[in-house]
Amino acid sequence: MSLPALFISHGSPMFAVEPGRLGPALGAIGRSLPRPRAVVVVSPHWMRPTLEVASGATRETVHDFGGFPRALYALDYPAPGAPEVADKVIAELARHGLHARRNDSRGRDHGVWVPLRHLYPAADVPVIQISQPSAPSPLALLELGQALAPLREAGVLLIGSGSLTHNLRDYFVDTPAEPYAAEFAHWVWAHLQAGDLDALLNYREHAPHAVRAHPTDEHFLPLFFAIGAAGCDWRQARRLDGGVLAGELSMDSFVFSAPSLTPAIAA
Predict the structure, then answer these.
(1) Per-domain residue ranges for the chain?
(2) Is 8 exposed, middle or buried (0-12, 13-18, 19+ CB in 10 A)?
(3) In this prediction, what percent of the chain has a pLDDT beyond 70?
(4) Domain covering 5-256: architecture
(5) Tens digit of pLDDT for each residue in 157-206?
(6) What is the DSSP-derived secondary structure letter of residue 22?
(7) CB atoms within 10 A of CB 73
(8) Rounded to an integer, what distance in angstroms lies between the CA atom of residue 48 and that of residue 133?
(9) Phi-psi region of 91 (alpha: psi -120 to 50; beta: other; left: phi over 0)
(10) Which positions ≥6 away from 9 have C-beta within 8 Å?
(11) Residue 25 above 50 pLDDT?
């Protein structure tokens, strides 16, 4: 059983309770795929100089945000861990020359549990998180995904969770919405369709509004983890139209190497 790789825009923590367009689309994906043995997620909200793998059998739901409605802090996503799959992740990374260590106490940040509430709302699929390098680059995340791509054949769903655009200053400042987020998102999708990996890797030089869309790029880099995880099939991309929140946060997401998904789910 080979599963696809996903890039999911997790947007604001409010996505947990405001599904918008993307939430139902993720739910449809979760129902259409074979049940994974486990889900492995990279999120920009856990960054370490040395790779770490959350390997405990149980994981705390971490509310790593402030200033949001109290209801968000009561939410839990009690999916089990999978220590044996975590060990396979570490072994696969080592096989590709990437050293990673176990972390048995790390909880799940909102970059993991918020989108998974929509993808697998029953929280019954084991979830493992991998730290993102603290000195990241598009190529580093691409190589991380490539190292773990074989796990897809073992029934592991690989996810890069980030945000297609991520300018929080614009998001929280009450100014008129501008078209830059949609224009940047359109550029990314066009180059995914064209299979132009070089342009994507060098997006800060080539994409319109790149620096404004990502003043820092840690939320964009999980896209490259998903591309790498899809292997040679990454050009088989499907877009999940998530819309743009507050004119600033593009919620567009992508499914790689999943040609069987219907256009109604991913176009």
Answers:
(1) 5-256
(2) buried
(3) 93
(4) 3-Layer(aba) Sandwich (3.40)
(5) 999 999 999 986 776 666 666 799 999 999 999 999 999 999 999 999 99
(6) H
(7) 12
(8) 5
(9) alpha
(10) 22, 162, 163, 164, 242, 249, 250, 251, 252, 253
(11) yes
* Alpha-carbon gap, residue 166 to 250, rounded angstroms: 8
Q: Is the pLDDT of residue 106 over 90?
A: yes
- Give the H or E element holding residue 205: helix 203-206
Q: How far apart are CA 44 and CA 250, in angstroms?
A: 16
Structure tokens at 6: 């996903």
C-alpha 177 chain-centroid distance: 25
Nearest partner of 16 among 67, 75, 62, judged by Cα: 75
Q: Which tokens hold the place of 20? A: 């918008």
Per residue in 202-225, pLDDT tens? 999 999 999 999 999 999 999 999
